[in-house]
Amino acid sequence: xxxxxxxxxxxxxxxxxxxxxxxxxxxxxxxxxxxxxxxxxxxxxxxxxxxxxxxxxxxxxxxxxxxxxxxxxxxxxxxxxxxxxxxxxxxxxxxxxxxxxxxxxxxxxxxxxxxxxxxxxxxxxxxxxxxxxxxxxxxxxxxxxxxxxxxxxxxxxxxxxxxxxxxxxxxxxxxxxxxxxxxxxxxxxxxxxxxxxxxxxxxxxxxxxxxxxxxxxxxxxxxxxxxxxxxxxxxxxxxxxxxxxxxxxxxxxxxxxxxxxxxxxxxxxxxxxxxxxxxxxxxxxxxxxxxxxxxxxxxxxxxxxxxxxxxxxxxxxxxxxxxxxxxxxxxxxxxxxxxxxxxxxxxxxxxxxxxxxxxxxxxxxxxxxxxxxxxxxxxxxxxxxxxxxxxxxxxxxxxx
Length: 400
Prior knowledge:
CATH architecture of the largest domain: 3-Layer(aba) Sandwich
Number of helices: 13
Strand order of the largest sheet: 3-2-1-4-5-8-9
CATH superfamily of the largest domain: Glycogen Phosphorylase B
Radius of gyration: 22 Å
Largest sheet: 7 strands, parallel
Structural class: alpha/beta
Oligomer: single chain
Strand content: 15-25%
Distance between the termini: 25 Å
Number of strands: 15
C-alpha cells in the first residue's frame, strides 16, 4: 500500500436516512478506506447521530452542492486532502471549486477529484416519454415527470458534463453507462466499477413448488420503470396460470394510472399494488417471492437486480443499458426487449411453470453476485483507483 491518504467522499444520500445504491456504496467505501489505513470521511446531508465517519451538513437538498463545496474547502484548510470523491451532479460545485483552487494554488487544489456518475441525464430525459405495449400507449408521463424532463434533467446534464470534463477520473457502474458518459458528456477514459451490495441475506425456505409462483417488482413507479407493460404482460400470465401472483412494491408518479389500469384489466387479487414499504422489509418480500421482474425502458445499473440475485431469485428484465452486464441471459435470468408485453409474459410463464429452472437460475445469480458484485470487491477497486490517482497527483505536484 502507498502512504495513507486523506479521502473525502461527497454524497447527497447516506444510510439509514437515504437508502440507495449510492448511499450504500458511500457508507461501505468509507469503512473500507478506514480498514485499509486511510483517513476517510463522508460529507453528506443527513447521517445517524454519532456516526464518526460522516459529516452531516443538513439543510435543503437543493443547497447541498454549495454546502458540500464550502465544507470540503474548510476541511482542506486544516490538512491536505488527497482525494475528493463526488457522486452525480451534486459534486459539480466541489469540482469547480477544486479546479479553481488548483489554478490559484490554494490548499484544496492539491486534491484530486474522482467522480462517479450512475447515469447520463440526457438519456434519463429521453426516457420520459409515452410507453407502448400491445400496439398502443399504456403509460404517459405525469406533469411532474415532464417538469423533470424539461427543467431538472437539462440542469443535471450540464452539471454532469461539467463534472465529467473537470474530474481527474470518472467512474461508471457499467460499460453501457461508460459509453453514454463518453458520448453525452465528453468524458474520457471512464473507469468501470460496478455497483455492489453488502453481505447477501440468507435464502428463504419458502419457494413455490409449482405454478402458484409470486412475481415481484420493487422500484419507484415512474414511467421509465414500465410497470404498465408488466401489468399488460401479467394479464396474459394470469389467463394461462391463474394461481400465479404479482406484487408491485413502490410508490411514485404513476401510481394512480397503474391502479386504473389494474381495474381495467380485471386483475383483481392476482395483482397487488402494495405501495411503498420500509426499506428494512424489502429482504423479507424478496424471500417470499419466486421471480423478480424489472421491465424498465431505461436504467443505469439497478441495485434492485443485485438484491434479487442475493435472495436467490431468477431475474426477468429488459435488455437496456447496464442490465445485461448483471443478468446473464439464460443463466441467471431471462432478458427481453423493452415494451414487449408478449415477450415479457412468455419469459415469466417459462419460469412460473418450471420451479427447477427457477432454482438453477437463482443459484447462478447468487454465484455471479459473489464473483462480480460483492461490496468488498467493489470497494477494493475504488481504493486501488484512489491510490493510483493520488500517486499521479503527487507526481504532478513534484514536477510543478
